[in-house]
Automatic annotation (TrEMBL):
Name this polypeptide is given: Integral membrane protein
Topological category with respect to the lipid bilayer: Multi-pass membrane protein
Keywords: Ion channel, Ion transport, Membrane, Potassium, Potassium channel, Potassium transport, Transmembrane, Transmembrane helix, Transport
Record has Membrane as a keyword: yes
Reaction(s) this enzyme catalyzes, per UniProt: K(+)(in) = K(+)(out)
Statement: the UniProt record of this protein carries the keyword Transport: yes
Main location: membrane
Family membership: Belongs to the TMEM175 family.
Molecular function as annotated in GO: potassium channel activity; proton channel activity
Residues spanning the membrane: 26-44, 64-84, 105-124, 130-152, 164-186
GO-annotated cellular components: membrane
Compartmental location: Membrane
Amino acid sequence: MAEPLLSEFRETTLPLGTSPAERLKTFTDAVVAIALTLLILPLLETVPDTIRANETAAQWVHASSNYLLSFLLSFVLITAFWHNHERIFEHVQRQTAPLRLVNSFWMLTIVFLPVPTALLGLQKTDATQYALYLGTMLLSSLAINGLALLVARDPRIVGRNPPLPARTLASTFSATVLYALTLILALNGVGYKAAFTLMLIPVLTPAMLRVVQRLKLISSP
């Protein structure tokens, strides 16, 4: 009688320094949803001016084309970041203080992103605009790297869930390298066209996978 109870107690007792991760996941998803919603605000602010000027919808689209493009681009990128975050947190059963800290930094980058997105609507671009927008993307990618490393290296976080695949870790590293390259190119005259380098993530990932495997960055269960 005592043995089954003892076994159940062992299963429900969390390792020291950990707690269930469900609240962290839910809170993070809510923050991302709010950030995505805030992206639309600069566009909404242009509508009253169009109405007062008695302009047509076609004129509004033409005048707000920069805001429309920046909204769509940032929506896609934040969704991609959230998807990567979700792929990592599928393997998270428990949270630790370092995981909460890095996750909070990642949320900070996501919440801040609507600000440089609004600045993309400006007619003139400069180095500061590139640094704010692409730099925020780079910091967000670095935070994703940190989360992936913590999940890969700390068995307490994974618990009974499947371990993080080495390819997922390699993909996050590849993205960070290319975000850094994008920022460097943008600041050196290429502009936002440098973002096309991000299409090379699938190309770079196999090479990065070999690095991950060689360095043994995935902890054994």
